[in-house]
Design brief:
rod-shaped, 110 residues, single chain, mainly alpha, 73% helix
């Protein structure tokens, strides 16, 4: 199996995900506004659930944003780890090349 990822993939992903926190909160508020015409049109468990959702909308938004921030933290950590690994790989290769005897590998006659 081959894993091929560009050097900026995770940082690009992180930048594109950052704005999603604000978008998520806005979408939840829009959902509540869109459902307001339904208020009073149903009873029972549906009404109770909707009322609870509306009552806890800010808490739900906070919890979802916290989860999204944790994902962003993970993306950032992976970006750092991949970047460090890439740099170390290059440094190790150059160090080993400096110690290698390339003349000994020549098979042709002099």
């Amino acid at each position: 199996m081959k894993f091929d990822m560009g050097s900026t993939t995770l940082s690009d992903l992180g930048r594109s995900t950052v704005g999603s926190t604000d978008d998520l909160g806005t979408l939840i508020r829009w959902l509540i506004q869109a459902a307001e015409p339904l208020e009073g049109k149903f009873n029972g468990a549906g009404k109770t659930t909707f009322d609870q959702f509306k009552l806890h909308a800010d808490e739900i938004t906070h919890d979802l944003n916290s989860a999204l921030n944790a994902i962003l933290g993970g993306q950032s950590g992976m970006d750092t780890a991949f970047g460090t690994g890439d740099t170390e790989l290059g440094d190790n290769a150059h160090q080993n090349m400096g110690a290698a005897n390339f003349d000994a590998a020549r098979f042709g006659a002099r």
